[in-house]
Hints:
Strand content: 25-35%
Radius of gyration: 27 Å
Number of helices: 15
Oligomer: single chain
Amino acid sequence: xxxxxxxxxxxxxxxxxGKTTLVDKLLIQSGTFRSNQHVExxxxxxxxxxxxxxxxILAKTTSVKYEEYTINILDTPGHADFGGEVERIxxxxxxxxLIVDAFEGCMPQTRFVLKKALEADVTPIVVVNKIDRDNxxxxxxxxxxxxxxxxxxxxxxxxxxxxxxxxxLQGIAGMEPDQLQSDLRPLFETIISTIPxxxxxxxxxxxxxxxxxxxxxxxxxxxxxxxxxxxxxxxxQVAVVKRDGxxxxxxxxxxxxxxxxxxxxxxxxxxxDIVAVAGLEEINVGETVCDTEHPNPLPLLKIDEPxxxxxxxxxxxxxxxxEGKHVTSRKLRDxxxxxxxxxxxxxxxxxxxxxxxxxxxxxxxxxxILVENMRREGYELAVSKPEVIIREIxxxxxxxxxxxxxxxxxxxxxxxxxxxxxxxxxxxNMINNGYGQVRLEFLIPSRGLIGYRTEFLTITxxxxxxxxxxxxxxxxxxxxxGGRHAGVLISSESGTxxxxxxxxxxxxxxxxxNPGTEVYEGMIVGEHNRDNDLTVNxxxxxxxxxxxxxxxxxxxxMKTPRLLTLEEALEYLNDDELCEVTxxxxxxxxxxxxxxxxxxxAKQKRWEAQPQS
Length: 613
């Protein structure tokens, strides 16, 4: 039995290929908003960070009406660091819209998200977006999409996908690239005719699987998922089958459906609906809500394991407590544990020290978004260098490997290949499109990519574009891979950096601070030209004399300092360094602030490295 009035679809794409903008236009054209209602752009990106960065971080559910049909749309993240969200959502839907940029074509995350969709055996529709771009190449992009489907072992049915050409920004679509209609009706029609209606046996015992989590201070944990069979009502007694197989009885306190961007309180829901349920304490992703008489669980969802870890520490620098509201280890621990309520791809482990926690995630972006959210909430903390998680599989040590795609002007290909060769990258493809741009594809150990972006932008003078996503676990590459080769300039004094002090050391390297910045002993103030660390005094003041200077009136010109963003600072770190993060500042520092402690630590490391007789 099918519910013909509903279609459940997910939208998948590489970062910045226009998913969220297209959803905006689908919402507007479906009549979800009043004609005089003010609507923001990229309305699905509700989080401040999402709006600033232009990326989707959290999967979100919305619903649009088209004629007599309800179309539930799940907007998924395009970045592989949030791939855990994509996998789970595939279990809630019967089809996907794969959105591909009409110029850029298939990118690493396109491959990543499509692989997840094909594994879940959902029906695909390909949308070639941004067809109005001057340099659009729709036919070549469609060929790339076919190649990608074949490469990912798509079945014959999956290869029969319909193609819709669209401009999400203008809200127009058509079945041919040069015959676009004035609205998105062709896309709506294709969704209704291609995506199968959900199976919905309403008379069978209840079965609903939780695939996403939300948290509300009043309602506690909220489980979001699809009802596969049966019906559900507020105040119903239900059985929740936990991940370990145990069964707990609970009561449904609130039930929400989705209408446009709003959650709407419902009294009842039935098979095929996507709902949010409150009242199920300690519910987790993958657990099944069943009828109390028939606790039959659905197969557990596989959640991808973390590939990268960092140590989060209480801030113990000389400037600790100046800018943040939450500075104690208890506050830090509570905040990390509360993040686990909604982010199932994250792991938090306590250590021997009460002030340090090991946090594991899916990648640098995943962890840096958490750090950025915490600093905006008023937390102060210090974080260590990101390290990949090495696993033992069948007795062999394995490390995460990334698929890296690089687009660069032809003249930079040699330098890029040389630097990636030093980081143990293996080239798998090279395409020269004849326009002076080359696309290079590599497989590279994840640790080889840590800190590479800055070097890459320097080599390509900012013209290069790099994208990467997790590929697989492969045998551990022996020896050092990647890492920073340059030393750093370390402040020897505590005080305020002066123009005179900075000018006296700027020929030693690149500065990270401006004059007037407060510094402390052990803080990193710049990058050294050589591979060793150098202690410098940037607080030095020029002594006044009564001797006139012939060059007094000359304007002092300083080099522009390199001010690091949070991601750049995390990538920059070495093993003996920390990044101090507060609501107003990002500072790099040595773990050991005094020079004598650093020398003692270096001596101990050298002694440990020597073979013991």
